[in-house]
Amino acid sequence: MKNNLIKFFICAVILGVAATANAKKPKIDYYSNINVVYNEQQISSQPDFEIIDNDTVWRVVDKMPRFPGSEKELYKFLNNNIRYPLSMMERGIQGRVTCQFIVEKDGSITNIEVIKKLYPDGDKEAVRLIQLMPKWEAGEKDGKKVRVFFTLPITYRLINN
Asked: Is residue 61 part of a domain?
């Protein structure tokens, strides 16, 4: 009787550990490094804004900044102006560099930062590409133009012939 009780207790503990290991875990949105999704609800891990250079820079606004024209024009600009670094080609390096920058009230781009690095030459090229961009349409909050953080992934992909 005592042995059966011990076996039952051990099985219950093992099943409990297995159930805990298989429990629903939060999904992390690695694209933005900003939000954590748990039970299909987003919980912000950062405040909606930050003070930089004595002025507010927003993460979430009513109207997000936009590349002139459309998102399609943004990708067209990126494809037409990117220079795949030779050092990366020779090594077969592919992947994504994620940059964050501020779109100012006048649409200019400042504070470019690589937040997910790939390879030094690819990181530098991503920054160069963002510096080439024309002014954007500024973001708005409560009907006023505001400074807004914008995150942009730039993907390097080799095409096999």
From this structure: yes
Per-residue pLDDT reduced to its tens digit, 105-148: 999 999 999 999 999 999 999 999 999 999 999 999 999 999 99
**Residues 35-91: tens digit of each pLDDT:** 333 333 444 456 787 887 778 999 999 999 999 999 999 999 999 999 999 999 999
- Give the C-alpha separation, 29 to 150, whole Å: 16
Range of the domain at 33: 1-46
Domain count, the chain: 2
Q: Give yes or no: residues 10 and 42 share one domain.
A: yes
Domain shared by 133 and 123, yes or no: yes
